[in-house]
Amino acid sequence: MANSKKNRAKKSSTPLPPPPIANDDEDDLMNDLLSQLENADKNVQAESAKILDDMHLNEQAEQLEKNSKASAKDRFKARQARKAAALAQAYSPDDPAAQAVLERAAKEEADGIEQMCKELNVVMHQVNPDGHCLFSALADQFAILGIVPPEQANYTTIRAAAANYILTHPDDFLPFLPAIENSDNCGLMTPQQFQAYCDSVRSTALWGGEPEIQALSRAFNVSIHVIQGEKPSIVAHEPNGPFGNPGQVARLSYHRRMYGLGEHYNSLRPQVKQAI
């Protein structure tokens, strides 16, 4: 009996490798936990961040990336896992030395963005880093430009607009979305997978990126310019055809290192001159 207990203790002290992100249930759990980070209750935020940390998302992403035969779906999952891990870190106590490194890198990036803001005469409006930042930032911009009524200027409205546009223009977006493994649709998502992706854009904390920005540029017929700390300094997304609102540009800042996150967007508001 003593030897048996000793063997069990020895086995339990051996760290096990983290499991890969292997099924939709774990993806759903990750999205649910990300949504909980929005909760006003700090205890809920901390607990959700802890569970995300315990999922060893960076290690899972590394395993997926090391696989030479990784599918496009696996590579997409790896990117999402790293973003989720970074966001969880932002809501968890940080190691001071690691935080100092992140802050230096973020400052270098911020300096480049600040210089562009001065040239464009805009100021940065901070958006909550909750997985909805792209949509919240564009909601702020569209309200400023008078494109969306203030009472509708929220990420829920903008997510729905992006999802609806992508869903109704599959030929424009399918080639640029992550292919699903074992798809029989010429390497593209199946109709069911495409529907699921659009549903995720609409109703989860799935990060928005290039496809969603382009969709919103076309849906609202407005130019969207993204300012970043690397070259090119401005990435322009233009709607097809003549502009419906000449001169109107929605401006965002794109951060790779803000708060230690993999990706983050803020809204760039026009500089308001103070009366003398």
From TrEMBL:
A Pfam family hit: OTU
CDD domains reported for this sequence: OTU_OTUD6-like (cd22748)
SUPFAM superfamilies membership: Cysteine proteinases
Residues of the signal peptide: none
GO MF term list: cysteine-type deubiquitinase activity
Superkingdom, taxonomy of origin: Eukaryota
GO biological process terms on file: protein deubiquitination
Renumbered residue ranges of the record's region Disordered: 1-28
Limits of the OTU domain: 122-271
Ranges of compositional bias, category Basic residues: 1-11
Protein name per Swiss-Prot or TrEMBL: Cysteine proteinase
Classification of source organism: Eukaryota, Fungi, Dikarya, Basidiomycota, Agaricomycotina
